[in-house]
Amino acid sequence: MEITLLLVLFPLFSFLLSGILGSMFKVSWFVRKSDYIGVTAVGISLLISYYLLFKVLHGEVIQENWFNWVISGGLSASFGGYVDSLTAIMLVVVTTVSFFVHLYSVGYMHDDPGYDRFFAYLGLFTFSMLALVLSPNFLQLFFGWEAVGLSSYLLIGFWYKKKSAANAAIKAFLMNRVGDFLFILGVITIFWTFGTLDFHQVFSNVNTVSAGVLSLIGLLLLGGAVGKSAQFPLHTWLPDAMEGPTPISALIHAATMVAAGVFMVARCAPIYDGGYVLPVVGVIGVITAFGAATVGLTQFDIKRILAYSTLSQLGYMFAALGVGAYIYAMFHLFTHAFFKALLFLGSGSVIHGMGGEQDVRKMGGLYKYMKVTAITFVIATLALVGIPPLAGFFSKDKIVGATFANEHHIFWFFLTAGAFLTALYMGRLIFLVFFGEERFDEETRKHLHESPWTITVPLIGLAIPSVFAGFLEGWFEHFLSTSIPNHVEEVSHGIELGLISLTVLLSAGGLFIAAYIYLWKKISPEKIASIFGPIYTLVYRKYYFDEIYSFLFIRGTGFGLGSFLNFVDRYIVDGIVNGVASLTRWSGEILRITQTGVVNTYVAYLVAGTLIVMIIIWLT
Amino acid sequence: MNLNLELMLPEGFLLISALLMMVIDLVISDRQKNSFFSNLSIVVIAITMLLTSGTVSMESNLAFNGFIRKDLMVVLSQLLLLISGIFAVLLSHNYIEKFSLKYKGEYYYTLLFALLGGMLLVAANEFSTLFVSLEVMSISVYILVALFKDDYRGKEAALKYFIMGSVGAAILVYGFAILYGLTGVTTYDGVSELVNKNGVTLALLFSIALVAVAFLFKTGAVPFHAWVPDVYHGAPTPVTAFMGAVVKVASFVAFLRLFFPVFVSFAKNWTPAIELVAVVTMFAGALLALNQNNLKRMLAYSAVSHTGVILAAFVTVPALASFVVLFYLFVYVFVTLAAFGMLSLLTTKGLKGESAEDWGGLYKKSPFLALSAVVIFMSLAGIPPFAGFWAKFYLLTALLREGFITLALAVVLSSLMSLYFYLNHLSMPS
Fold first, then answer.
1. Do residues A274 and A203 make contact, with C-beta atoms less than 8 angstroms apart?
2. A575 to chain B, minimum CA–CA distance in Å?
């Protein structure tokens, strides 16, 4: 059997075994055994991923065909595995994070009645995500795209009895639908233009197609990426998706699925390089990077702060894509996956310890109680903020530097400012949660404890790459250059050094100001909020996106379009349908009158019919 | 003289057996009659089937100086008729028991005579043979309809059927007379040769119209259908099943056998009329069934609608038409027998089943019958994967291949309409 197929099948088996036997039919052998199944299955996938990475490192490109689904005329739809350096990196990221999340969930979800269902969904997600990154053609990409969307929906709404969770799941699904609709249009346009959906054939023929068409394809595909990666203006679902269990936020809504948009754009680099869409990608990225960072400053829910941070960091990746620095985007995706997953898992550990409390105003001083969590969380924070020599420093600086080098100075300005804001909100977060005075009650303190090893081991496991992944930068760039381009102008060392110093200084300054406000209490945050007044309210209400969308789309479609269509359906469509039905019944009634039961009439019909037939035959 | 009597062995056996039954009827005690005759009839029909199978041949053989022609299509239709006969006998046994028919022997041998008429009708290769066998079949069925004593509706139906049938027969004979006048011969081959030589004349067109009308009447096409609901409804249910299966198949095959060799070269003259009748028939049948509350009448109208659909196949090229019509009939016979058989079973079991209201909650009283009803109605409506679907499928394929888009559309639309009343009947609340 093909090795790549094996790679995706293990998580699928985990899904089937835990889902059907464990959760659905409750076969006693499988009930509450899905942790073993899941961890083992993903563990095997992890090993296979590293094996594949090893093979790709030796210059191999693996191309396997699993099966042909449809071969009809010009369309050949097959499923398979395509592993080049880009895929190999994604495989490693996905399986590593997924493995740690599986392990983490054993402890985190231990008391949940939906234990088996949870692991089943995790398996489904891992399977879908692997199928997505392995895709050798746009069809499988779309399949994976939709399948991760489905698993995301199922997992956000995992606690479906909670109304807010169910609503968040629906919101995520609907927002993604907008993007996915554009995405499938893009795929159709590709088929229409190139006559094939195979990556290799499409990319090797891009120079035969006009830049306009490529731009159209690029824009449509970008729609899908914007939805999946929660970029402006389709970003509102991601903060709400935090209603799902925390391991899910780490795996799906921080490390892997939301990065699928970045991966897809990088994979389609030949299409984007051929069209005019890249600036759009960049603008979207910069708006999201900066805007989300500002919102992150004002939130109080620990997971929401991290969600806005994810939005912001995904914005950085999009900005990198937008200036043509595909490899830097992928590198940031790579490092971000580790430290953001770590941050979420750490926040889960905090929430676990606090007995479900998520409001940072009711925390503080937790360092004393949960040292492993606090230390790993701080490491991840420093990595995210970009303090050298942690992972985020290398990847973020490369992106900021690339915008400057490619002379997108406005991008550069906002991304640098965003780096400062990142330091500010992350500093605020750690000082509010782990340091300062304790703001929780006695009851909570009694139960406050460090989490069990299944939770702390993944934290430590993810802390290691968060510290060291940055040193892979040179190797990473070289390795990925075999599959995707990287258009970055050379700048002099002096300027480079200056830029790096500036961002590091700003980041350190941000952390310092955060400490000044939240640790040392020199200025009260309320006072700052009152200085900014309406601006603060605007940001605190997340720029009123939810309200605007609710008014435009929910109210607008509900009352405007909805009532119009209701009228059309009820009176015009139903009118025609019922009218046809009544007309038919009525003609039946009329015809019945002819059935008199009297033989005389029957004979009359017979004679008349005979005459008619005679006349017709005579006339023709 | 070329008699080829060995070819006529099945018909001969059936005839002699039926005649012997007339004699046995006089000596056997009344109490045993029903079981004895029904078993005997089944044995006789089974042996006839065996003998008929012996005459299967890929070649076309003539008997009685070319008055009878036996080829594959004829033999296959004869087998189909005989199978239907067996089912009709099986249905009759319980029905006769339940309604204590006085003339039991008469019932069974009349049924065998009707079957004999049908067998000869499909094999006929000459006008007088055709007419005589048609009358043997028809008169036997008139008797069967009227045989139950104290059955007012049956008597009325028989009378109506007889009157209408006589008019139909008169029209047929009139058509034949004109043809004889034109050619001076009565065998199909002879007539065919001479009319082709003479070309189109007004008299010929008149005779074609008259013959066509007679067959359209027998098969129950609109506007010659008026007798169908009354007779199907009034007749004892096993006899209705017999009419729906045997009489219909025999008439259709005879229609096909007469028109295709003899009048095929004038097809462009008569197809528009057949087309029109087909379309009118399928829609009128479906529309009339729509508001029908009585299941037996509804099935009668559905039979009319199906006649229209089968007629639509007549316009396709001869080879296709024979196959499509025969296949459609093959499927239709079993579904019709099943439908009326179900009705008869309901009646004999004491569950009323004719009026739609009686159907509510049938599933609780008899799950097997209720499920059979679903299968039968789905098949009649032409829902895949049931047999009725494939019959319609081949018919539509043939129509589309020959470019009769309008006809195909009419078939689909009328099927859609009929779906309503089949499903409506299934969804009766209790």
1. no
2. 18
Q: How far apart are CA A462 and CA A373, in angstroms?
A: 12
**Mean pLDDT for all residues in chain B:** 89
**Interface with B, mutate which of A603, A613, A616, A620 (most B CBs under 10 A):** A613
Closest approach of chain A CAs to the CA of B285, in angstroms? 9
B contacts of A603 (beta carbons < 8 Å) = 163-164, 167
State the number of CA atoms in the 13 A half-sphere of B392 facing the CB: 28
pLDDT of amino acid B353: 61
**How confident is residue B352, by pLDDT bands cut at 50, 70 and 90?**
low
Q: What is the pLDDT of residue A397?
A: 86
- Residue A45 confidence (pLDDT): 92
At B294 the pLDDT is 85
Query: What is this model's ipTM?
Result: 0.86
Predicted confidence at residue A205, as pLDDT, reads 87
Determine which helix (DSSP H) or strand (DSSP E) holds A602, and give its type and residue range.
helix A599-619
Give the residue, B257 or B351, on which the prediction is more confident: B257
Kindly determine whether residue A595 and residue B229, on different chains, have CB atoms separated by under 8 Å: yes
Which residues of chain A are modeled with pLDDT < 70? 72-73
Confidence of residue B313 (pLDDT cuts 50, 70, 90): confident
Mutate to test the interface with A, among B159, B230, B304 (most CBs of A within 10 A): B230
pLDDT of residue B305: 93
Say yes or no to pLDDT of B234 above 80.
Answer: yes
The C-alpha atoms of residue A67 and residue A8 are separated, in whole angstroms, by: 14
End-to-end CA distance of chain B: 67
